[in-house]
């Protein structure tokens, strides 16, 4: 009973007593019970795939206002206050006018006339009949749905009937569920996404401990599992058991989980037209907790987030510790989402948070565009760098040694095209091409319009390397020989051209499709989707592919990987109705970029470098 008391419970003995868990619990506690293996206690169908249960969810009760006031006060005591360093009032006016639904629908060409695709208010993509492959994919996605007390709350990572050791692939992962959520939203099925957002929000308040140390408040779990616990011989109950990284390989906290949660929260409001979820007090509190965790001041001199290896989609040691592009792109997107969704209050807390967000957005966009970008011109500039420059006027600010430029890059970079490098630290540039970070930089407008087009130009020019037989490479090129031994620690799963070390991941297809639609390059997305559609159902929807061109199914790849299935379906729906994509990407914010936030000139010091680089940054 002590174990049961330590978990948040929903009794399943009587259906009339099913309720949505209250957030937050009176005394947040964490279960130290190990995860149980198996299929979550869900009913099985003939094929061994769990049946979906789309029962209408219970109406969540509300907490009294007095309790919420006490809780938010308690939350503030745990969170570092985010204060602005800029006294300029111009930042207070930089706010998305009209809120979450202010973006106009995209107008796309169709036949002899333009068709305006109005989205929101319960979007449902029904244009065109589903192919047999799509019907199969939908059946598999529905079969991967996880139910909690009769209500859908997410999808398992993989649902391979032949997998006898699912490890943690039978859990609901935050990042993995995003393409599933978008597929459901685009189809007009909203409840599973709403339930997922609320339940993961409740788990955020749990106590997280590894070796007597607790990470900051606001951390979202990497995943959770529905477990069935026996009360006595006749009665059982379902509980949610989260993993905040204390059970993960390497014990790394999932930095990207909270960022994906914010991005999905915005997408829910956009595609359903329902902003009431975002305006709830518990959702606003959880949103602020994630932001404060990310915006807390530290020792770093850069606006980018400093993280450890394995804290995102690449969740094993792959040499991405520091300031990886993927985290920066998701961070930038989450900040832009939050700026739209934060509800104004009479107090100064939200105003300070908005000011801090604008400050960070401006600094981060300049930092990434100026220092992460490489093309033929930039590489030639680095090749001629002077080193050991000690001054505020230094060109080689990070003291990059030209000898770091790898030989493969000099031959590989095309005449027309470029990309954002994978990482930047003092005396270190990671010149690998990371697909997710570059695609999400396009989607969020972290890159300039010129840079965004150049990234797609590079993918097109290097199609055989980055797409090959299966879209898309997670990174290029792969580590091998001594680099593989030193950087991965001889990881047998990340051997050259496998898994995170240059493997091909079909789930990246939906992000590629979204980026192509935004930049008017829909033919590239159609080509990639057609390639995937021929192989994925034949190969049983693998998690990833191996070899330099993605020719073989990954040696340790799970089959019937849910985000492979969902990524394909989301791509197909976006291609059928490209107007839906306008709800999922961001356009350039010129007003934000035009304002310098460092304020150095007001203190009599030399002006910052933004003025000299403005011509490039705003292109």
From TrEMBL:
<protein>
    <recommendedName>
        <fullName>Alkaline/neutral invertase</fullName>
        <ecNumber>3.2.1.26</ecNumber>
    </recommendedName>
</protein>
<dbReference type="Pfam" id="PF12899">
    <property type="entry name" value="Glyco_hydro_100"/>
</dbReference>
<comment type="function">
    <text>Invertase that cleaves sucrose into glucose and fructose.</text>
</comment>
<keyword id="KW-0119">Carbohydrate metabolism</keyword>
<dbReference type="GO" id="GO:0004564">
    <property type="term" value="F:beta-fructofuranosidase activity"/>
</dbReference>
<keyword id="KW-0378">Hydrolase</keyword>
<comment type="similarity">
    <text>Belongs to the glycosyl hydrolase 100 family.</text>
</comment>
<dbReference type="InterPro" id="IPR024746">
    <property type="entry name" value="Glyco_hydro_100"/>
</dbReference>
<dbReference type="InterPro" id="IPR008928">
    <property type="entry name" value="6-hairpin_glycosidase_sf"/>
</dbReference>
<keyword id="KW-0326">Glycosidase</keyword>
<dbReference type="GO" id="GO:0033926">
    <property type="term" value="F:endo-alpha-N-acetylgalactosaminidase activity"/>
</dbReference>
<dbReference type="InterPro" id="IPR012341">
    <property type="entry name" value="6hp_glycosidase-like_sf"/>
</dbReference>
């Amino acid at each position: 009973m002590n174990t049961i008391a330590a978990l948040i419970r929903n009794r399943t003995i009587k259906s009339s007593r099913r309720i949505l868990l209250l957030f937050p619990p009176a005394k947040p506690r964490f279960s130290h019970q190990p995860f149980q293996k198996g299929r979550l206690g869900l009913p099985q169908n003939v094929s061994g795939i769990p049946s979906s249960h789309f029962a209408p969810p219970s109406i969540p009760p509300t907490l009294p206002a007095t309790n919420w006031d006490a809780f938010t006060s308690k939350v503030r005591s745990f969170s570092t206050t985010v204060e602005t360093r800029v006294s300029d009032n111009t930042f207070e006016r930089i706010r998305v006018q009209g809120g979450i639904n202010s973006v106009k629908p995209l107008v796309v060409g169709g036949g002899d006339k333009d068709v305006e695709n109005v989205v929101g208010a319960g979007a449902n993509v029904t244009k065109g009949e589903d192919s047999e492959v799509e019907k199969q994919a939908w059946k598999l996605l529905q079969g991967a749905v996880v139910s909690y007390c009769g209500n859908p709350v997410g999808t398992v990572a993989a649902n391979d009937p032949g997998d006898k050791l699912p490890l943690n692939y039978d859990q609901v992962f935050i990042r993995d569920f995003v393409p599933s959520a978008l597929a459901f939203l685009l189809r007009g099925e909203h409840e599973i996404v709403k339930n997922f957002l609320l339940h993961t929000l409740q788990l955020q308040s749990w106590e997280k401990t590894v070796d007597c140390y607790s990470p900051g408040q606001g951390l979202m779990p990497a995943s959770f599992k529905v477990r069935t616990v026996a009360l006595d011989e006749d009665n059982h109950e379902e509980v949610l058991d989260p993993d905040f990284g204390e059970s993960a390989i390497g014990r790394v906290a999932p930095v990207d989980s909270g960022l994906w949660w914010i991005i999905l929260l915005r997408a829910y409001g956009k595609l359903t037209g329902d902003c009431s979820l975002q305006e709830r007090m518990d959702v606003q509190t959880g949103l602020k907790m994630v932001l404060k965790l990310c915006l807390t001041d530290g020792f770093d001199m850069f606006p980018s987030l400093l993280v450890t290896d394995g804290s995102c989609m690449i969740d094993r040691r792959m040499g991405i510790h520091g300031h990886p592009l993927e985290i920066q792109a998701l961070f930038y997107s989450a900040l832009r989402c939050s700026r739209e969704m934060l509800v104004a209050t009479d107090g100064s807390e939200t105003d300070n948070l908005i000011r801090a967000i604008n400050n960070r957005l401006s600094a981060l966009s300049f930092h990434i565009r100026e220092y992460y970008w490489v093309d033929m011109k930039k590489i030639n500039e680095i090749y001629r760098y002077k080193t050991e420059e000690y001054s505020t006027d230094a060109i080689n600010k990070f003291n990059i040694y030209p000898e770091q430029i790898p030989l493969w890059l000099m031959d590989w970079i095309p005449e027309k095209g470029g990309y954002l490098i994978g990482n930047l630290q003092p005396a270190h540039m990671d010149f690998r091409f990371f697909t997710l970070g570059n695609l999400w930089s396009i989607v969020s407008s972290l890159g300039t319009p010129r840079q965004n087009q150049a990234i797609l130009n590079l993918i097109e020019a290097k199609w055989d390397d980055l797409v090959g037989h299966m879209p898309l490479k997670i990174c290029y090129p792969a580590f091998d020989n001594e680099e593989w031994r030193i950087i991965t620690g001889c990881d047998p799963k990340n051997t050259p051209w496998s898994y995170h070390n240059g493997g091909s991941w079909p789930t990246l297809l939906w992000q590629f499709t979204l980026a192509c639609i935004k930049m008017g390059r829909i033919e590239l997305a159609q080509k990639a989707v057609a390639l995937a559609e021929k192989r994925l159902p034949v190969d049983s929807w693998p998690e990833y592919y191996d070899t330099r061109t993605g020719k073989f199914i990954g040696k340790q790849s799970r089959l019937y990987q849910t985000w492979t299935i969902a990524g394909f379906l989301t791509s197909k729906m976006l291609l059928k109705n490209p107007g839906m994509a306008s709800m999922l990407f961001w356009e350039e914010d010129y007003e934000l970029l035009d304002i310098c936030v460092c304020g150095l000139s007001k203190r009599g010091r030399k002006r910052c470098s933004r003025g000299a680089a403005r011509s490039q940054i705003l292109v």
